[in-house]
Design a protein that fits this description.
Helix 1 packs across helix 2. It contains eight helices and seven strands, in the order αααβαβαββαβααββ. The protein has a single domain, classed as Rossmann fold (3-Layer(aba) Sandwich). It is an alpha/beta fold. The protein has a seven-stranded mixed beta sheet with strand order 3-2-1-4-5-7-6, with helices on both faces. It binds S-adenosylmethionine. S-adenosylmethionine binds next to helix 1.
């Protein structure tokens, strides 16, 4: 495909993602990322897998210490599953952003409901590409599923530029098993399959961060049926 064609595809997929996460996708993921019983078996498993990812991030951050002096950027925050506990743990500041207005509004609603100190939190409707600023720690969980390999690597480089010390990302990893599942899925598209999903090669993600002066500190694969997420923490070395 030509560069122009690629750009067009990128824009049209982003428009689909935006529509989805402000509509049916918001309803669906808001339920998954909650205690609601109104979820099916697949969604319940995704909830369990995702919670493992969030818990790992929080435990890495707690282990490293110094949270009350650190600023956090939660890029693609969804309904605040990570932003809210980070604030509760005493983060100096949390910048929560998402491409979807509905997601950002729900994050704010949940923060208010929990009685959190909103003076330490900002809420912004923004895609990852438009984010700017400098944060001690930048975190982007389960958002790269919407980015093909090259675009995800470009995004890692962009997020590195916003990061002073620590970058944490998670993505669906390329494995022969997942690649096969994806091929099978293409032959049997279900009604809930409304955005394209990409699985990514970890090597490309690691290399992109390395080019920006970051190295892998720790990594963990979280799995539950229908949930696969490779979590990687990078630390800045230069
Ligand atoms: C599966 S949810 C994960 C939410 C959150 N990171 C978490 O782990 O709880 C994916 C989120 O990514 C957001 N998203 C998708 N594409 C995005 C983009 N280009 N820029 C910012 N957010 C995006 C969606 O709106 C959605 O809230």
């Amino acid at each position: 495909m030509t560069e122009e064609g690629l750009q067009e595809q990128k824009q049209s997929e982003k428009a689909e993602v935006l529509t989805y996460f402000n509509g049916t996708g918001f309803e669906r993921w808001n339920r998954i990322y909650s205690n609601s019983d109104d979820v099916n078996k697949v969604q319940r498993n995704i909830r369990i897998g995702h919670q493992k990812t969030v818990d790992d991030v929080l435990s890495w951050i707690k282990e490293a210490g110094g949270i009350s002096q650190q600023s956090f950027c939660d890029a693609g925050c969804g309904v605040g599953s990570l932003s809210l506990p980070l604030l509760s743990l005493g983060a100096a500041s949390v910048a929560a952003s998402d491409i979807s207005d509905a997601m950002v509004a729900e994050t704010k609603r949940r923060a208010e409901l929990d009685g959190l100190d909103l003076t330490r939190m900002t809420f912004k409707t923004s895609d990852l590409e438009s984010l700017n600023g400098l944060f001690h720690t930048v975190i982007c969980l389960d958002v790269f599923i919407h980015y093909p390999q090259k675009a995800a690597e470009e995004m890692v480089r962009h997020l590195c530029n916003l990061t002073e010390k620590r970058l944490i990302v998670s993505f669906a990893p390329y494995t022969p098993f997942l690649a096969l599942l994806k091929i099978i899925g293409q032959f049997f598209p279900g009604p809930s399959k409304t955005t394209r999903a990409y699985i990514l090669r970890e090597k490309g993600i690691v290399n992109a961060a390395f080019e920006c002066g970051f190295r892998v500190k720790q990594r963990k694969l979280n799995q539950a049926p229908f949930y696969f997420s490779q979590l990687v923490e990078f630390e800045k070395i230069k």
